[in-house]
Design goal:
The complex is a heterodimer.
Chain A lengths: L3 E3 L4 E4 L4 E7 L6 E7 L6 E6 L3 E5 L2 E6 L4 E6 L8 E8 L10 E2 L3 E6 L1
Parallel strand pairs in A: 2-11
Antiparallel strand pairs in A: 1-3, 3-8, 4-5, 4-9, 6-7, 7-8, 9-10, 9-11
Chain B lengths: L4 E3 L2 E4 L5 E6 L6 E7 L6 E7 L2 E4 L8 E4 L6 E5 L8 E8 L10 E2 L3 E5 L1
Parallel strand pairs in B: 2-11
Antiparallel strand pairs in B: 1-3, 3-8, 4-5, 4-9, 5-6, 7-8, 9-10, 9-11
The chains are: A mainly beta, B mainly beta.
């Protein structure tokens, strides 16, 4: 079982719709959760972080965390063609593992159709 | 403020040849990471430095890969000898980490390696 799992997509949504991206993680003790966006041929950039259960909103982006179910999601409202990219879910594991760097999922490719 | 700088951006070598990648992190960032990214996959950690100390190198294939971060600033990642399967993008990232871990990484543009 991979530590962080994402559907590779592509997820295709029309412009103006809500895009919903999901991620599950295997280590129940994981503490911190992040979403990175990676345009084709570019490097990842951080767009959202979430540390506690519930929702966190930043502009058109909402991150959702449910530690009991071990899933993280990212909602993008009013999707724009410029949102077309690969979205990487990343997790920092528990202190007990000693692995204190981000573990990334394989990413979900989002396509926003004009 | 300058971002994370990596060089070279592209490198093509024949198998069994050596190759080295260089990274200059954001000024003031004490933590430096080397990640490997294969096509269609997420980045995978190779090594993490806090200042000049390698605090996590469990994923670094030590038979052919080596890294150093002299004086806790610049870092070099070396592969010797390179194999066909090493073809990938090598990403350097940096962050400010104080007494714990952070997921707020800043990535360089990456070094794309092709091994023929």
């Amino acid at each position: 079982q991979k530590e962080v799992e994402q559907n590779s997509g592509p997820l295709s949504v029309p412009e103006g719709a809500i895009a919903s991206l999901n991620c599950t993680y295997s280590d129940r003790g994981s503490q911190s959760f992040f979403w990175y966006r990676q345009y084709s041929g570019k490097s990842p950039e951080l767009i959202m972080s979430i540390y506690s259960n519930g929702d966190k909103e930043d502009g058109r982006f909402t991150a959702q965390l449910n530690k009991a179910s071990q899933y993280v999601s990212l909602l993008i409202r009013d999707s724009q063609p410029s949102d077309s990219a690969t979205y990487l879910c990343a997790v920092i594991g528990p202190r007990s593992t000693g692995r204190r760097a981000l573990t990334f999922g394989s990413g979900t490719r989002l396509q926003v159709q004009p | 403020e300058a971002g994370v700088v990596q060089s070279p951006r592209y490198k093509i070598i024949e198998k069994k040849q050596p190759v080295a990648f260089w990274c200059n992190p954001i000024s003031g960032h004490n933590t430096l990471y080397w990640y490997l990214q294969n096509l269609g996959q997420g980045p995978e950690l190779l090594i993490r430095y806090e200042n000049e100390e390698a605090v996590d190198d469990s994923q670094l294939p030590k038979d052919r890969f080596s890294a150093e971060r002299l004086k806790g600033v610049d870092s070099t990642l070396k592969i010797q000898p390179a194999e066909l399967g090493d073809s990938a993008v090598y990403l350097c990232a940096s962050s400010w980490t104080s007494g714990g871990a952070t997921g707020e990484l800043f990535f360089g543009e990456g070094s794309r390696l092709t091994v023929l």
